[in-house]
Amino acid sequence: MGDARGHEISSEDWSSKDSHMDKDNHRAAPTDHEQHIAALPPSEVQQTTTALDSHKTSSHLQNARSKLGLHPTAPIVEEHDYAKHSDLWWPRVRLALKEPFAEFFGVFFMVMFGDGAVAQVLLSTDQRTAPGGDGFGDYQSINWGWGLGVMLGIYIAGDSGAYLNPALTFTNCVLRKLPWRRFPVYFIAQFLGGFLAAGVIYINYINGINNFEGYGNRTVPPSKTATAGIFCTYPQDFETKAGMFFSGMRTIDGPSQAYTNSEAEFIASAILMFVIFALKDDSNKGQFSASGAWFPLGLFFLIFGIGACFGWQTGYAINLARDFGPRLMSYAVGYGHEVWSAGGYYFWIPMVAPFLGTLFGGILYDIFIYTGPSPINTPYLGLGDLFRPKNAIKDRVETQKTEGIV
Asked: Domain 99-372 falls in which CATH fold?
């Protein structure tokens, strides 16, 4: 998922006389800088002038944001940047951390909808009061929940790039020039979003969990009344480590009816990244554009499709933030050490496989379809940079500054 870009021009490029010229005075001819700004798209003009105008609140936060790896120019509507309240303490904090907050709440609501759907399907198993007399929802309800959660999370986190997944952030750092300094703060925000969302789900469904397992009982698969699968993934008993790596499983078992939701890891992560790059690639749009306003809807169908088409064999463990964060929360609320030891200490696989899968899917797309800037579209497919890391880092930073990424 792409990063917001804007060309930034330093105030040093402007003379003191020009930057404070009275409105009634006019130059005989526009300067090169004015011509440059006039040629930019409206969105980039806004970011450029924001960087130049010291009267805006965001202009005083550039150093703090740069140290966090964020774009020095905060994504904010110009009139809001001038507003009196923007100089208050909390609005300044909010503006300095706008993108991490967006990633936090994007993941928070994604996990709320996804884990909430799993909880409702599992805990209502065999409920005769439900329409049809057999529980409130089925396997497709889980796919709907996760698809809607991802779509809404993207709308919430639009200003941050809406990555919502450390593996996607990582691959965009490798292949799409996203600054590496931004990865840690995004990672923390995404992890905390999943962690706290799982806590809200637990509080909301605690009575249902007590009713399902027995008061105070908290178990993990393969227990027939396990509810730990509400929060994170667990492997099927027959799965080998290699099978778990390429297709991790989560078992959601009721007393008389089993709902088995398999969680794809490497394979589904590769599919996820490949299709996201395709949706964001305007150079490959043909007669349509899948990015922009259509992108969240495209991701809804992608996530729903992965669940619906690979629901038993592969599926959803494609995001460390939505698996490890909720897993840690389930441990904290009393599910015990088994959340780590189940499946032969399977827990590390959903943490590692998505990074490898998304990187593989991204490289695959860039090799065969993408024609824009990418390490793959450099001599030796970018492998030459491994032997000249200092020069590669220097070139990357210079390119980022030129394109206004940092």
From this structure: Glycerol uptake facilitator protein (1.20.1080)
